Amino acid sequence: MEAVNALGRRKAAIARVFVTEGSGNITINKRDLAIYFPSSILQYVVKQPLNKLGVAEKYDIRVNLNGGGFKGQSEALRLAIARALVKINADDKSALRAEGFMTRDSRVVERKKPGRPKARKRFQFSKR
Fold this sequence. Notes:
The protein has a five-stranded mixed beta sheet. The model has no long low-confidence stretch (mean pLDDT about 95). The chain is elongated, with a radius of gyration of 18 Å. Helices cover about 35% and strands about 25% of the residues. It is of the alpha+beta class. Helix 2 runs parallel beside helix 3. It has one domain: Ribosomal Protein S5, domain 2 (2-Layer Sandwich). The longest helix has 19 residues.
């Protein structure tokens, strides 16, 4: 099997993954998963699609990650891994969709408007 690549986005984060057959190593920007995401919760989020299908030890995953914060990056990576797994085996799509791993979360930060301190907040109103 040659490398299967996929893209995942969340907020401002973009994850490009390259999945090959291997022993379960996940390398993010040339660093190990445990070093890049020290939080066990974020590591769990990244591995959710692999654990759901029971293929965590079957594939090596190389990732280019940029933009956003650690939460958005981990969720972008989860989407990219799920998309790559579907490219490898299309029968897995329904199982991943049921868990919500195939859905792109399109919520992004609303832009700041002129004449206001933030996107929706207004300056204090004074009648006199």
